[in-house]
Design goal:
alpha/beta; two-stranded parallel ribbon; about 50% helix
Length: about 250
């Protein structure tokens, strides 16, 4: 549990996938791999008609990449392997034939914004501010960038990527299209998630599969694209600039 966890359960055709980590639901490679594997398994499970993706707790949705693991990357191969974890999760969401509902209860940083963007319909609380902080630590949102850009457009994605230390509100994220609906309370949000999930679980699976293919049209090349982007990040994380920036961030 100290290294994070992924839980999954099925009820009434709804497959709920929950991840967590003691450090603000950050994402080490083990959690990323488990997420990708479980999304793929849920997609292949006949009893699952729709998938809900959520994180544990009531505060941060996801703090992004595990800084502890970033600090321990020693070469390009290890860097590629770590950042490929984000690529695997995004591609698992992309290739799933089942619609994925996102539930974002709190702030989303870096890879957390990428997770929200990879869902097909995303609910959030009014506390779910967003930030792409990668440039502030010497990297850049290279792997999650395509997913975020697909949802909110190049201009808004560039705004997040360039002004990497500033938060954008949940209302901003909804206006740009990252979030579909936002709610004042967790109870209201969870009721809305539950209502839509069970409505979709009773819908025509072939129709939803066809819609999913339309929504993700033009992304067939992402298997290769995101791997290439992972290589860029994997190389940059080894630079003296980035190592110093991450160490300074951790010391705060």
């Amino acid at each position: 549990m100290e290294q994070g966890w992924v839980k999954f359960h099925i009820e009434g055709g709804v497959g709920t996938l929950e991840f967590g980590h003691p450090q603000s639901n950050s994402l080490p490679s083990s959690v990323l791999q488990s997420l990708a594997d479980q999304i793929t398994a849920a997609d292949q499970e006949a009893a699952v008609r729709v998938i809900v993706l959520k994180s544990s707790g009531e505060k941060t949705f996801c703090a992004g990449a595990s800084f502890d693991e970033l600090c321990n990357i020693q070469n390009e191969a290890e860097g590629l392997r770590f950042f490929s974890g984000f690529a695997k999760v995004i591609n698992a969401c992309r290739t799933s034939e089942k619609l994925i509902i996102g539930r974002v209860q709190g702030k989303a940083v870096g890879g957390g914004v990428g997770l929200a963007a990879a869902t097909d319909y995303c609910f959030a609380s009014t506390k779910a501010d967003v930030k792409l902080s990668e440039l502030a630590v010497g990297i850049g949102p290279f792997v999650v960038g395509p997913a975020v850009e697909r949802k909110i457009g190049l201009s808004a994605m560039s705004e997040l990527a360039i002004n990497a230390t500033e938060w954008r509100s949940a209302d901003w994220a909804k206006t740009k299209g990252l979030y579909t609906e936002i709610y004042e309370t967790m109870e209201e949000m969870d009721n809305a998630v539950d209502t839509l999930a069970h409505r979709l679980a009773a819908s025509n699976p072939e129709a939803m599969k066809a819609l999913k293919q339309i929504f993700w049209k033009g992304t067939d090349h992402w298997d290769q694209l995101l791997l290439e982007r992972a290589g860029i990040s994997g190389n940059l994380v080894l630079s003296a600039f980035t190592r110093k920036a991450i160490a300074s961030f951790k010391a705060k």
